């Protein structure tokens, strides 16, 4: 199997389909769709292909830290988007992401505690999520926005998987949920539709983290006894069911 060819064909296709889905179904549903493991799943798959199953399984602990940092990014970007344009908002959100990742990496929590902490963090963030303070701006589109998203996401996957051997499983895992997809969604919705659309999209993504986190958590156990296809398939179904239930609750 030509792994490089798979990387440069799979990721652009996924990004294009997600973008079209968000345009069709709007912010909240788009955020839920975007929170599915479209990027993290392939990255974990490539870790396993190139580094082996033990590497992939061990990276999941780091992924829990990365998800905590992702929650921090979403909440921060949503809050600051009400006052600033996209660039200062993005820099502040990245600062929140980095600080969160460093703090929880220092704490050295085990997988079970990390998973529970992520679930609690999602529920708390939804309880106190920033409220939009402006009207929804009509949709505008930049030329070539889908190709831009495709290229950025693909380059990120190539970088993380290419550096996995140097970074090791923990930091590779931490970077797996790095908000590359979320950054793309946030910048384009913020620039083209304003803060209200951005907050709606990112809140939908945070809701979807309940299923996304469970998908990765289950891999730490399913991959020990099942094939990659079976492990991913079973966990993906659980992810989708959780997202469906969460969308009805919130």
UniProtKB/TrEMBL annotation:
Sorted UniProt keywords: Membrane, Transmembrane, Transmembrane helix
Entry keyword Transmembrane: yes
Transmembrane segments: 6-22, 29-49, 55-80, 87-106, 112-129, 150-168, 174-192, 204-222, 228-246
Name of the protein described by the UniProt record: Uncharacterized protein
Species assigned in the record: Spirosoma linguale (strain ATCC 33905 / DSM 74 / LMG 10896 / Claus 1)
